[in-house]
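WARN  no MSA supplied for this record, continuing single-sequence
INFO  ligand: PL4
INFO  echoing inputs
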Amino acid sequence: MIKRNANFSKLAGGYLFPEVAKRRREFQQKHPDAKVISLGIGNTTEPIPPHITKAMVDYAAGLGTKEGYSGYGDEQGLTELREKIAKVVYGGKVNADEVFVSDGAKCDIARIQILFGRKARVAVQNPAYPVYVDGSVISGAAKRRGDDGYNDITYLPCTAENDFFPDLTAIKKNSIIYFCSPNNPTGKASTREQLQSLVNYAIEKECFIIYDNAYFAFIRDEKLPKTIFEIEGAKKCAIEINSFSKLAGFTGVRLGWSVIPSELKFHCGSSVKQDWNRIMTTLFNGASNIAQAGGLACLDEEGIKETKELVDYYLENAAIMKKALEGENFASKGVQVYFTGDSPYLWVKFPGKKSWDVFDQILEQCNVVTTPGSGFGAAGESFIRFSAFGHRQDVEEACRRLANFKI
Ligand code: PL4
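INFO  complex generated
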């Protein structure tokens, strides 16, 4: 018999989002008439804007013609799209050959682990998007100490007390640092000074930063950097992972990219980009050509206007939710809302409560699904993450119900 990959037994329970979905299903079975509203999983709800949709429709129609048909493309993505991402998103700070188009950020986060092998030392923000930890554990980084030489994961608490930016000195030399900004789940977008200190530390301690920038389009404060490559020295130590999912509602279309700078080198001096190219050409067969046509449209003048309006819609939802969550029934119980206006998530602390208990209470009383903060790590205990992805009328209805929530 084939032996089970022992790493699976090191995972702590099930993956967060299916558990949230399961509890919602169970609740709905018990209360079939309840009109449940989801402010839980960060899933886009609004239609893809017309100019971008048209580009994909036209491309798809072309596939049915002799002239418009295309089969496999380059595994690294369309040259035109790589060039456009380098120019429009990065203002020329990165080169087209450093951009690798993919089927989404989550898929790149999973593949990136292959670059470093199973004994890589890992550091993550706590709380964090669960894929960094679970993906690391599946690929061999142990969660428990003393596991026959595998390296442990260093958890970096990000709390209100430290402005949701970790104490970097806890990070060991030669670590792979997963860093997300604007952050899921805390919503915190790191400042230029904070990111400069992260880059300086990574260079000094010979670490690599895996910078998850999936929510860059939500940054509205012009002082905040929109990419790690605005930070001096970043090309020597950082990889950026990015996505069209939240930029343009491509959560179902599936399109993302990663930037692997040419300057980034392993200890032996060999090129990280060269190995990433090997991974992408060997284990990936290129993003959908229809999705890439949509990606190109997102980055032209009309597309940029449309995506900004789309993101603004969700940010307006977030502002409506903030007002409701700062209502008297919450404030009188010491509930604290963390939201700076640069992300689709509100990070809300219910002092003295367990996250899953509050999740269940909100579901029972308001029929609103949220995400329990503890699912993102121990430092998320007592928090609830509210997602601003939703139709306006659902968000407003959820807020009306939350106004009567009894803690
Ligand atoms: C639910 C920090 C959402 N089933 O769509 P992708 O793959 O380009 O991007 C995924 C992604 C990457 N990086 C960060 C993210 O927050 C996400 C999406 N996260 C959430 O609610 O936290 C969707 C989660 C999905 C999942 O497991 O990713």
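The mean pLDDT is 95.
INFO  checksum written, moving to next record
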